[in-house]
Here is the input.
Amino acid sequence: MLGLLGLALAGLVLFASPAAPLGLPPRAVVAQGLTDTTIQLAWTAEAGADSYRVYRDGGLIADQPGTQLDDTSLLPGSSHTYTVSTVSSGLESSLSTPASATTQAADNTSAPTQPGTINVSSITSSGAQLSWASSTDDVRIVGYRILRGPAGTPPNHLTQISTNDSSTSFTAANLRSGTSYTFGVMALDASNNHSPIRTVTFTTAASSDTTAPAAPSSSGTKPTAFSSSRIDVVWSASSSTDVASYRVFRDGVQVADVPLPLRRTFSDTGLAPSQTYSYTIRTVDSAGNVSNATTAKTATTLAPSTVKT
Here is the structure.
């Protein structure tokens, strides 16, 4: 921090020439909030000065020979004005031009309050509208995390699916018809403190749809070996507007069902080294209809104890 103060004093003479008159106050005083309880001061040296007297808000707080002072034990976010005088042969000069600074805000460790009751409306076979009363915080709320899981999932086991920027509503989509879900909402503040999770459980409407959705593009499906025991699979989106999830098949056997809005990726682990595997993807809509499979794509795990570089 001294370097910053030094820059602020750039162009000023730190050590006056012997020709400078005695009894003059420092020609420049710089103050800055160093922490939430400390303001750092620096000033130009004056020829003939035996010591310097530092005043905070009009009261004397130090008499010292050096040209820097850390004023500590201040309150967070408090503003103060400083002046400095020189003392030479027992005589004190007039005061310098005042310099003011504010301590930094205190570290925020206080969590926001839990969001209010979640209201669920406009329930359909594939979505619903959620809204809740806002949380409060000692500084400010910056957003809300939205979490989701099967009905009965404990709050701390729900999966984060979205983050709202201070909005107290969320449109839930990509849900399965006739299915019960638990949704959670958690408030965040600027210091990343988070509130307790507020939850709500509801069931989507039934659906009579029997039309299968479109499969993802086969050209967009790509399995890539990551290590001797893992293959990462990515795929493109289905052209259908009603999509709830994508099922991943390895050698014709389902190994994953990836729900939206999670990313269209899957890491297949526990595989054998130097082994070739075949992957296909199928789209599932809100009614549970399943698309045709994509064209099979293969990947071979790496040699034992090998990781992709």
